[in-house]
Amino acid sequence: MDHQHLKELISSYHDGGLSSEQKRAVEAHIQTCAECRKEWEDMKKLEEAMKTMELKKPKPEVWKMYGASVYNRLEKRIGWILFSVGAMILLFYGGYEMVKSIVQDAATPLLLKVGILALLGGFVILLISVLRERLFVRQRERYKEVEK
Predict the structure, then answer these.
(1) Is residue 115 in a domain?
(2) Strand, helix or coil at 138?
(3) Could you tell me which residues come within 8 angstroms of residue 118 by beta carbon, excluding any fewer than 6 positions away?
(4) Which of 7, 32, 80, 114 is deepest in the core (most CB within 10 A)?
(5) Is the residue at 131 inside a domain?
(6) What is the predicted pLDDT for the residue at 126?
(7) What SS3 class is residue 21?
(8) How do residues 31-84 score in pLDDT, each as one tens digit?
(9) In this predicted structure, what is the pLDDT of residue 67?
(10) In angstroms, rounded to a whole number, what is the distance separating the alpha carbons of residues 117 and 102?
(11) Residues 16 and 68 in one domain
(12) pLDDT tens digits, residue range 108-131?
């Protein structure tokens, strides 16, 4: 392998992503080439320096300002609305296809068909009831501005 190719493999060698043959070739090259040995040592120093670094954590006031911004609230609401609509469409479509296949299957006993349909109907009614209740409570929450 030529010098340039081996130089390009040093990063992969450092990350442990080389075959044993490539690894031996890079190790031998590092022993004989001062330029590549310096690059290898610089990578090790950089890795050591990176281990000691930490991201600076924003102050609580910054998070409070971000959470209170109109854009952030609007973004979250739109996201939850789209997620909820998508989930409802998928649930109702899946339920529809399941009911259709059960009703059309002549081999399924009538009692089993009625039981499955009652179970699905009850689930849908309970789901809608819980969602309406949560929306009602959320709109009338007196302490939503109080911090924990």
Answers:
(1) yes
(2) helix
(3) none
(4) 7
(5) yes
(6) 92
(7) helix
(8) 888 888 888 888 888 888 888 888 788 788 877 776 667 677 778 888 888 998
(9) 66
(10) 9
(11) no
(12) 888 988 888 888 889 888 988 998
Tell me the three state secondary structure of residue 33.
coil
Q: Which residues contact 51 (CB under 8 A, 6 or more apart)?
A: none
- Give CA 53 to chain center in angstroms: 25
- The SS3 of residue 142 is coil
Q: Mean pLDDT for the chain?
A: 81
- Tokens 């009703």 -> residue: 103
Structural domain contains residue 147:
no
Beta-carbon contacts of residue 55 (< 8 Å; ≥ 6 apart): none
Q: What whole-number distance in Å separates Cα of residue 43 and Cα of residue 30?
A: 13
Shared domain for 109 and 82, answered yes or no, is: yes
Rounded Cα distance, 68 and 81, in Å:
19
Tokens of 34: 């001062």
CA end-to-end distance (rounded Å), the chain: 63
C-alpha span between 104 and 67 (Å, rounded): 51
